[in-house]
């Protein structure tokens, strides 16, 4: 009897322990699935673009984001309790990522793109949290403190800007559209934040929602109109072409990704699953078409093979003058070795054709200048594509002056693209310094900060006025 009871107890305890083992295993695999999905989301959201410094440890922060109002330093977001976010609860993490509020209650500067991440679901935030807590190595070196000049040093000031521009409601699912479309919209608005670059900004540097994806300047580069407009946007692209461009950064005889788009492809978009890339493309193809003056006339089919010096033999002196001989010789000397003397590129299009190319075919000549100055350097699973820059190395034989680049750009645009706007040396100087009204490439991404200053001044003014009124009323 005793033995039987003992056996029963033993069997029971075995059962309990194996059940709890199953439970523990289930919990383990839940956690590891969350970590896996969180890692994928961190890549889709490109957290590393700012939180991993050049040659630094993963997510240890320290990258200096230079803005018109001062330098903002990206935080250490490793799970270190002293130096990182190791002591953040999931709720505090959610508030930082979606509302721009730090653990100590202070507001983050919008250099952290919480206005886009605000649409992330609780489930995705949970997975991101699990990844940052358990899938990232803690680094115990704190990132340097951000010290902006007054009044930007007062973080509460950011509340005014948030009141105006932070939409922290989740995206409502649209039942008239497919699950794929809804997934695409969620990614485009949130993690992949296409609008951060492709939507023009308003007077307070907020994204102008009524002009969603119709083109914006991002530092030295121009992010073109990617609405579904046939002429100004990418309405003529198939869904498959858009997927190919996002995965590889190259669509032969149409477009290549350089600058910040090249970086987004390299660090983020190329790793998206086929399902997610298709979802993004499905949604983008339905974005309201917007016709923009800057992009009139499709930029994908402009131009034709160029002329060579032989073509000019026996021409009148006026024809030779019109031909921009200096531009031609700069082209032959610096560009023809790769893009071929007539600009048709190499057979395999590793060196792309310069006609039927969105950069030369755009009415906005900004990216012709940016390409010549900065070159192209993009690594994907397909390998590396590299074009040297011609304007950033004072001691380099490749170094061209602003005037030379303007002359060369005008030649390239007139010969291979759309020649309705002349490039001046001043235009080149502007792109060389990192774009209009900013001094570095990242500035436009975080240009919203300028808006915050204006809001601060406005708020102060209102406050002072009200205080004066109250004082006057008391008199
Ligand atoms: C475009 C640059 C950029 C990207 C992309 C970015 N961040 Fe940030 N993040 C920042 C900057 C800059 C700060 C510090 C801002 C400040 O000091 O006000 C910050 C702060 C934070 C903080 C607050 C930490 C603290 O205590 O200071 C968290 C948490 C955070 N980011 C998480 C993330 C996650 C998760 C992602 C990806 C989903 C991400 N960030 C993507 C720029 C970025
Ligand atoms: C960090 C800024 C940034 C982000 C984020 C970004 N883009 Fe871009 N995009 C650019 C820039 C700059 C260019 C121009 C690149 C060039 O011509 O070399 C560009 C070019 C493109 C082009 C080619 C257009 C043409 O005419 O050549 C497409 C299509 C595109 N982006 C789609 C997207 C989509 C879809 C997303 C979101 C999933 C996205 N981009 C996110 C900056 C960005
Ligand atoms: C060493 C070879 C090489 C030289 C020299 C070179 N390029 Fe390129 N160029 C490339 C490569 C590679 C690409 C990128 C292809 C890709 O993105 O898939 C490129 C891309 C371009 C683009 C498209 C950029 C974009 O963002 O879509 C333009 C325009 C261009 N080059 C113009 C020029 C001009 C003008 C010169 C002369 C100043 C020049 N290139 C010199 C190799 C070269």
Automatic annotation (TrEMBL):
Its cofactor is heme c. The keyword Magnesium does not apply. Heme c 3 binds at residues 335, 338-339. It is found in: Cell membrane. InterPro entries: Cyt_c-like_dom, Cyt_c-like_dom_sf, Cytochrome_c-type_DH, Membr-bd_ADH_cyt_c. Residues 294-313 are annotated as: Disordered. Residues 1-26 form the signal peptide. Its main location: membrane. Residues 33-136, 179-288, 322-416 form the Cytochrome c domain. Heme c 1 binds at residues 47, 50-51. The chain crosses the membrane at residues 439-464. Heme c 2 binds at residues 194, 197-198. Keywords: Cell membrane, Heme, Iron, Membrane, Metal-binding, Repeat, Signal, Transmembrane, Transmembrane helix. One of its GO terms (molecular function) is oxidoreductase activity, acting on CH-OH group of donors. This is Cytochrome C.
């Amino acid at each position: 009897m005793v033995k039987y009871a003992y056996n029963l107890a033993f069997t029971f305890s075995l059962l309990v322990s194996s059940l709890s083992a199953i439970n523990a295993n289930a919990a383990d695999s839940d956690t590891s699935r969350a970590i896996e999905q969180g890692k994928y989301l961190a890549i889709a959201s490109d957290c590393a673009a700012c939180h991993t410094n050049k040659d630094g440890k993963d997510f240890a922060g320290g990258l200096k984001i230079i803005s018109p109002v001062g330098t903002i330093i990206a935080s250490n977001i490793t799970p270190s309790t002293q130096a990182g976010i190791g002591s953040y609860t999931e709720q505090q993490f959610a508030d930082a990522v979606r509302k721009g509020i730090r653990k100590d209650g202070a507001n983050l500067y919008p250099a952290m793109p919480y206005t886009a991440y605000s649409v992330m679901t609780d489930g995705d935030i949970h997975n991101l949290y699990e990844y940052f807590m358990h899938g990232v190595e803690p680094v115990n070196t704190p990132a340097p403190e951000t010290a902006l000049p007054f009044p930007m040093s007062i973080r509460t000031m950011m509340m005014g800007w948030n009141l105006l521009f932070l939409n922290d409601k989740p995206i409502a699912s649209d039942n008239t559209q497919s699950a794929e479309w809804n997934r695409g919209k969620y990614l485009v608005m949130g993690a992949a934040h296409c609008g951060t670059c492709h939507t023009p900004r308003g007077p307070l540097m907020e994204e102008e929602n009524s002009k969603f994806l119709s083109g914006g300047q991002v530092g030295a580069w121009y992010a073109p109109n990617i609405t579904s407009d046939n002429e100004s946007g990418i309405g003529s692209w198939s869904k498959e072409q858009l997927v190919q461009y996002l995965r590889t950064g190259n669509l032969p005889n149409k477009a290549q990704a350089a600058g910040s788009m090249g970086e987004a492809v390299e660090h983020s978009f190329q790793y998206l699953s086929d399902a997610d890339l298709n979802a993004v493309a499905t949604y983008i193809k339905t974005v309201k078409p917007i016709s923009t003056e800057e992009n009139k006339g499709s930029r994908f089919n402009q131009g034709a093979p160029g002329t060579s010096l032989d073509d000019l033999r026996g021409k009148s002196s006026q024809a030779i003058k019109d031909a921009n001989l200096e531009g031609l010789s700069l082209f032959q000397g610096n560009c023809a070795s790769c893009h071929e003397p007539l600009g048709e590129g190499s057979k395999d299009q590793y060196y792309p054709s310069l006609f039927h190319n969105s950069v030369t075919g755009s009415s906005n000549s900004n990216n012709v200048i940016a390409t010549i100055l900065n070159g192209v350097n993009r690594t994907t699973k397909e390998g590396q594509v590299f074009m040297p820059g011609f304007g950033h190395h004072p001691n380099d034989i490749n170094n061209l002056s602003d005037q030379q680049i303007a002359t060369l750009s005008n030649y390239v645009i007139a010969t291979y693209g759309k020649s309705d706007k002349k490039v001046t040396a001043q235009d080149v100087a502007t792109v060389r310094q990192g774009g209009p009204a900013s001094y570095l490439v990242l500035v436009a991404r975080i240009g919203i900060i300028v808006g915050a200053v204006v809001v601060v001044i406005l708020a102060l003014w209102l406050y002072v006025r009200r205080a004066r009124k109250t004082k006057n009323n008391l008199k």
